Amino acid sequence: MCKKIQHYRKTIIHSLPTLKYLDDRPVFEDERRYCEAFAKGGIEAEREEMLSEQEAINQDRKLRAEAFNKAVRNEIYKDADLADREKKELDKFIYEYKFQDNQGNKYSEFMVRMNEINQDPRKYQKFLKFVKNIDAFESKKIAEKQTAKSTFNFLKKGSNPLEGATSKEPVKQRATGSPPAFKFK
C-alpha cells in the first residue's frame, strides 16, 4: 500500500487532519503545515512554507534579542553605583561591534570574550563558579563600597582623626612578693 501511494506520508497526513501518529512516528504541527503546502503546490510550496517558518523564527529571535539588549542597556544606565564613564565603557564592551570574521559577521568584545571562555575549560569553570556565587559577589561588593565610604568619611572629618580620643598612661603594677618572670645576668 505504501509503495502504491506517491508521497505516502505527506498524502496521508494531508488527507487525515486529526491524525496524531503514522507508522509509529508522531505527526507534529509543522509537518502537517508542510504536507498541506505540498498538497497545494508541490515541493516548491513546501519549501516556501519551510522558509517562511524559518524567517518567522529568526524574526522572533531577533525581537527577543533586541528586547533583552534594551533591558540590559537600561539596567546599565540605571545603575547609580556606576560612573558615567564606566557606563559608556560597559556599553561599548557589549554593543560595539568592532571585530569581524572571514564571513563578514561582526562581534563585540563581549562576544569574543564569551567565545574564549566557551572554548577554554579552565576559564569556563571559573565563569561557572562566578555565576554560581554571584549573590555572594554582589554582597561582597556592597560591603566593600560601605567600607570605602566609611573610610572616606573618617578621613574627611579633619586633619586629626583621633580628635576626641582619650588615652591613659599605662600603670605599672607589680605583684608584691613574686619574683620577676625573667632574670637576666
What does this structure look like?
By secondary structure, the chain is mainly α. It is built from 6 helices and 4 strands. It has helices spanning 8-15, 29-78, 84-95, 109-119, 121-132, 134-156; strands spanning 21-22, 25-26, 97-100, 106-108. β3 and β4 (106-108) form a beta hairpin. α1 packs across α2 (29-78) and α4 packs across α5. The longest helix is centred in the first third of the chain and has 50 residues, at 29-78.
Keywords:
single chain, 185 residues, two-stranded antiparallel sheet, 6% strand, elongated
Work out the radius of gyration: 36 Å
What helical percentage do the residues reach? 55-70%
What is the SS-derived class? mainly alpha
What is the helix tally?
A: 6
Largest sheet: 2 strands, antiparallel
Distance between the termini: 117 Å
Overall mean pLDDT: 82
Strand order of the largest sheet: 1-2
Shape: elongated
Instruction: Give the topology string: H per helix, E per strand.
Output: HEEHHEEHHH
- Which range does the strand content fall in? 5-15%
Poorly predicted ranges = none
**Annotation, overall tally of beta strands:** 4
Describe the secondary structure blueprint for this structure.
Layout: H1 8-15, E1 21-22, E2 25-26, H2 29-78, H3 84-95, E3 97-100, E4 106-108, H4 109-119, H5 121-132, H6 134-156
Antiparallel strand pairs: 1-2, 3-4
Helix pairs in contact: 1-2, 4-5
Could you give a quick summary of the protein structure above?
It is built from six helices and four strands. By secondary structure, it is mainly alpha-helical.
